[in-house]
Specification:
Layout: H1 7-13, E1 37-39, E2 42-43, H2 55-68, E3 72-76, H3 79-90, E4 96-100, H4 105-114, E5 121-125, H5 130-136, E6 142-148, H6 160-170, E7 173-177, H7 182-185, E8 195-198, E9 213-217, H8 220-233, H9 239-249, H10 252-271, E10 276-280, H11 290-296, E11 303-308, H12 311-319, E12 326-327, E13 337-339, E14 360-364, H13 370-381
Parallel strand pairs: 4-5, 4-6, 6-7, 7-8, 12-13
Antiparallel strand pairs: 1-2, 3-9, 8-9, 10-11, 11-14, 13-14
Helix pairs in contact: 1-2, 2-9, 3-8
Amino acid sequence: MTSTNGFNTRAVHAGQTPDPTTGAVIPPLYQTTTFAQDGIGQLRNGYEYGRGTNPTRDSLQAQLAALEGAEHAFSFSSGLAAEDALIRAALRPGDHIVLGNDAYGGTYRLINRVLADWGITNSAVDMSDLDAVENAVNSGKTRMVWVETPSNPMMKITDIAAIAAIAKKAGAMLVVDNTFATPYLQQPLSFGADVVVHSTTKYIGGHSDASGGAVILNDADLAEKVGFIQFAVGAVSAPMEAWLTTRGLKTLGVRMDRHSTNALAIAQWLQGREEVERVYYPGLADHPGHELAARQMRDFGGMISVSFKGGEQAARTVAESTELFTLAESLGGIESLMNYPSEMTHASVKGTELAVPENLVRLSVGIEDVEDLIADLEKAFTNL
């Protein structure tokens, strides 16, 4: 297998050489914490202790790097663990981060409340406004620009190449959270991003059964620093989590095709409902980022946000009235999920400039039959 192979070929085969001992097509799960040494300091194939290295995690990391078109990938126990490791590897007290003003609440909490005590400062801006980004970036102090595209949950689309140019001019690195789009729909490194991060808990794992995160990059010096943090701090993905994530990643392409098809149909249905104030989905022609998303992404993904004319009560009613759409945190699984961000995923940013409208719900559209999903929503709407 080479880097010229197609995405789905790489997803199935990267890091997945059959077991040399038995010929097992699926590499075994190395559920072990330590490895026998052939002598003092004589490690067998470099394996010593599970926090440092594990063949199952190595396989996942090879897979992740191949799919983002990168040289290095590191797998962590959660998306936030990955983000924390990256920031501490790349920044120092006094450094400044510019991030989107509708970033994931957990990312903002990490940067604004946890790392602020370490001396990291931040500014939140509308990433779709390039002038605002350029004004927020302080040459010499801003060391990192943080982008989500599509953003969570307002589904804003950011021009990765344009932001990369702004960051480079200021001497800052561009980090793109590619969780919503996945490497199947979008490859930020090819547009000039320096680092990609993922919550692999979401679409990459795809089955709501394995938590994880990833940092993916090309820069060898920064990779060495991230790898050291991974080893020294130890927030690594456990062998079972890594094995399940690898299993899910192999079908990412076919799943994202179905997620995207279903989401577009539901977004178009929502547009025709009188109860709906606005539908936030980049696949719709009237979305302000539609043309950019069409250039930057293979398809438009499975995430939709929708605001209701009936305000907070209408949003809460719908969120609590569906059956196939399960009211739950998280996203990106094969099953459809409903989320009320203001009180759930983004509760930590209430009262800040990142606060989510109280009349908004977020849909993670699964791979079920779309007719059944629309019927489920239609039934919930009868309670309004």
